[in-house]
Amino acid sequence: MAFPLTRMRRLRRTPALRELVRETRLDVGDLVLPVFVEQSLGTALPIDSMPGVSRQPVSGALAEASECLALGIPAMIFFGLPTEKDAEGSGAWDPEGSVQQAIAAIKAAHPDLVLIADCCLCEYTDHGHCGPLNDADEVDNDAALELLARTAVSQAAAGADVIAPSDMMDGRVGAIRAALDLAGHQDVAILAYSAKFASAFYGPFRDAAGATPSFGDRRGYQMDPANLREAVREAELDIEEGADAVMVKPALAYLDVIRRIADQTAAPVAAYNVSGEYAMVKAAAAAGALDERTAVLELLTSIRRAGADFVITYHAKDAARWLQKT
Ligand code: PBG
């Protein structure tokens, strides 16, 4: 049945034919917009390494929410910058913290948006690691759990629909689930950053969130980029502990991990198209090396094709506009 009987080009001939046989669809309903909130700002502060993205005061986060609603983006994920940092990261569970205030304001104005709270301590600790340190200056896993649980409960109390722990401590999903249930937040979901790799592609985010470790790196708790089977194990453990959905992060250098986890688990799979991936595309487009719109839609489609049910991306608003027009 090979050529000339079979001609693959027949179904590629017109836009309508291509539409008909398209295997993967990119829909605005699968996108999540990340937002950096800093309550002490008077006005939005552009992030140099991420053109088009700013740190926002609470009012700015509220404006971003209205934009999401207008564009059809169903969900946002929030990162906070505290007014002060300390060894434990106590700003993370401050009921008047940046994330808590933004979530409360947006929930009141737009109750239908899905509000996801990133749950981690690195933006709030003065040493920039994702949990408190022990005497040997290593992150103390079990001491972090209680602080993360406290953070999650304060985020849920503010109105978060989903808590997304990104710290990579062992046992955090179980600890957060138990604490949420105890506080009466049994309907608040957990999206676990299950396969979060120790990646160079978080560089611009750490700029944006002021969360670069003051010494060492995160390889003692985030995953080794070389490991695939371990990623499946992380996802399975998080689901056993009560995760409602799992995440792979970054996305583009880890499409095989997304595919494997999507094949081996039944839970919804998210992928985080991270800051460095965004910055690369923006830099290439600014240099005239590629067409931004075509490149972004191709990359986001590839993440969906790999098996992600939804995608967290700084391109969300642009992609939503481009999808409306196609
Ligand atoms: C917090 C956290 C990070 C990102 C999301 N949550 C940074 C890190 O782990 O160093 C990265 C997001 C991005 O790069 O866009 N732990």
UniProtKB/TrEMBL annotation:
Belongs to the ALAD family. One of its GO terms (molecular function) is zinc ion binding. It catalyses: 2 5-aminolevulinate = porphobilinogen + 2 H2O + H(+). It is an enzyme of class 4 (lyase). The lineage of its organism: unclassified sequences, metagenomes, ecological metagenomes. It comes from freshwater metagenome. Its EC number is 4.2.1.24. Keywords: Heme biosynthesis, Lyase, Porphyrin biosynthesis. This is Delta-aminolevulinic acid dehydratase. GO terms for biological process: protoporphyrinogen IX biosynthetic process. PANTHER family: DELTA-AMINOLEVULINIC ACID DEHYDRATASE. Pfam families: ALAD (PF00490). PROSITE patterns: D_ALA_DEHYDRATASE. Pathway: Porphyrin-containing compound metabolism; protoporphyrin-IX biosynthesis; coproporphyrinogen-III from 5-aminolevulinate: step 1/4. GO terms for cellular component: cytosol. Coiled coil: none annotated. InterPro entries: ALAD (IPR001731), ALAD_AS (IPR030656), Aldolase_TIM (IPR013785). Signal peptide: none annotated.
